[in-house]
Amino acid sequence: MPEALVNEHEASRLLAVSVSTLRNWRFAGAGPKYYKVGRAVRYDPADLRAFARPIEPRRQELAAGARA
User: Fold this and answer.
1) Concatenated DSSP letters for the chain?
2) Structural domain tally of the chain?
3) How many angstroms from the chain centroid is the CA of residue 47?
4) Structural domain of residue 63, as residue ranges?
5) Contact 62, 51 (CB under 8 A)
6) Contact 31/25 with Cβ under 8 angstroms?
7) Residue 36 phi/psi, 5° resolution?
8) What's residue 3's pLDDT?
9) pLDDT at 64
10) Average pLDDT, integer, range 60-66
11) 31-49 burial, b if ≥16 CB within 10 A, otherwise e?
C-alpha cells in the first residue's frame, strides 16, 4: 500500500529544510517531485527520500568539515 502524501510542512521537516526553501525550489523548477491537489501542494514520501539520497553524503561531509 502506498504511503499517504504529505503537505509542504511535513515535507520540509522530512528534508530538514524550510518551507520557504521548498517553495523556492518549486518556483525554480527544482526540488523533489510534487503534486497539486486542488490548490494544495503534496509530496510523496518516497519521492522525498529519493531526492534526499544524493544530498545526505554532502551534508555529512559539510558537517564533518565544520567540526574540524
Assistant:
1) -PPPPEEHHHHHHHHTS-HHHHHHHHHHT-SS--EEETTEEEE-HHHHHHHHTTHHHHHHHHHHHHH-
2) 1
3) 8
4) 6-67
5) no
6) yes
7) -100, 125
8) 83
9) 63
10) 59
11) bbebeeeeeebbbbbebbe
- Establish if 1 belongs to a structural domain: no
Distance CA 26, CA 28 (A): 5
Instruction: Compute the distance between CA of residue 42 and CA of residue 62 in angstroms, rounded to an integer.
Output: 29
Three cell numbers written together for 49: 527520500
Is residue 36 in a domain? yes
Question: Residue type for 3, please?
Answer: E
Question: Is residue 61 scored above 90 in pLDDT?
Answer: no
Higher pLDDT among residues 67 and 5, named by residue: 5
Give pLDDT tens digits for 4-48.
Answer: 999 999 999 999 999 999 999 999 999 999 999 999 999 999 999
Q: Which amino acid is at 5?
A: L
